[in-house]
Specification:
Largest sheet: 7 strands, mixed
Number of strands: 11
Number of helices: 10
Distance between the termini: 15 Å
Oligomer: single chain
Radius of gyration: 22 Å
Structural class: alpha+beta
Length: about 325
């Protein structure tokens, strides 16, 4: 199901919510209509899975309405909630559909009340939002999103592994990781703030191409020097990939810099965890008699995976 997006507006005596879901995922996994005017199966599915609690009382939901979305790859489900009491400061928003959508599903929510706009990332472990979480909670939400993004960004992981698979000493790993970090941090910030933007299809295709390049270089180049330069060059494009989720979500007006930096720190934490796992494996492999064959087979797999992704993204639009 990937990501869903929620736009929630709190009103004096109620709330409105638009939930944007991947149309293909809904159609395939839940047998729900992605077109047409019959919302009954959709209403049955979402019954009790979206709640707004105002002053300890549940607001009454209307049946969800299926609407067309400006993005043809998504459907929009609109909810209207009526509260018996004026919407005050004690408001909670609860989403309970993560068991069905899968543990890796996230809902990137924008919550509006008057001129105040807040952002929150709902996950299976964070199913509820309260009106005033504060900047610290907001930063924690974006940090967790950054960690999750790198752990589920298999193309980023494979690129990094491809750079490190040939053992050149611990200092070489430090140079590569530092160079990659600096590069993608620069473009992540520029892209997330819309200072520099590139087409998503171009970004994803070049990321796939970077994986294929590293794999083929590992096989055919005998003396690989200055690998940190390759990490920096392609790392710039990977930063645009990291920024895509933030650009789609929209960064908060309040705590903008803190949220952006928290997401980037989350990415770095996840990246360091991956390197920590790979480090002893690569070192152990470098000490074996079959290390050359091991590197070649691993690099061939990396090349084929990168090439497959490149063809899918550049020519098939997948």
């Amino acid at each position: 199901m990937g990501l869903s997006y929620a736009d929630i507006t709190l009103e004096p005596y109620g709330a409105r919510m638009s939930l944007r879901l991947p149309a293909k995922g809904v159609a395939e996994h839940f047998n729900l209509p992605v077109k047409g005017d019959s919302p009954e199966p959709l209403a049955a599915f979402f019954a009790g899975k979206v709640e707004i609690i105002n002053e300890d009382r549940a607001c009454r939901p209307s049946p969800p309405a299926l609407q067309p979305d400006e993005d043809p790859s998504r459907i929009r489900v609109d909810f209207v909630f009526a509260c018996t009491e004026p919407v005050g400061e004690n408001v909670g928003i609860y989403l309970y559909f993560f068991n069905e959508f899968g543990p890796n599903h996230s809902t990137l929510a924008t919550i509006r009340r008057g001129q105040t706009v807040k952002e929150f990332v709902f996950t299976q472990k964070r199913t509820d939002f309260h009106l005033a979480p504060g900047l610290l909670a907001q930063a924690g939400s974006f940090l967790a999103l950054g960690v999750e993004h790198i752990f589920t960004g298999y193309d980023h992981i494979l690129f990094l592994v491809g750079l490190l698979v040939i053992w050149r000493g611990a200092m070489n790993i430090v140079k590569i990781v530092t160079s990659f970090t600096v590069a993608h941090s620069i473009t992540l910030i520029l892209a997330a703030l819309s200072v520099v933007t590139l087409p998503s299809r171009l970004v994803e295709s070049v990321i796939a191409l970077s994986i294929a390049y590293v794999g083929i270089e590992n096989i055919f180049v005998k003396e690989i020097r200055g690998r940190w330069r390759v990490a920096f060059l392609f790392g710039l494009m990977h930063g645009f990939g990291f920024a895509e989720v933030l650009r789609e979500m929209g960064l908060p007006s309040r705590g903008l810099v803190l949220s952006l930096l928290s997401f980037n720190v989350g990415v770095e934490i996840g990246q360091l965890a991956i390197v920590a796992v790979c480090f002893p494996l690569i070192y152990y492999g470098s000490r074996q008699a079959y290390r050359t064959s091991l590197v070649r087979w691993a690099s061939a797999a990396i090349f084929l995976m990168g090439l497959t992704w490149f063809i899918q993204r550049a020519f098939l639009g997948a």
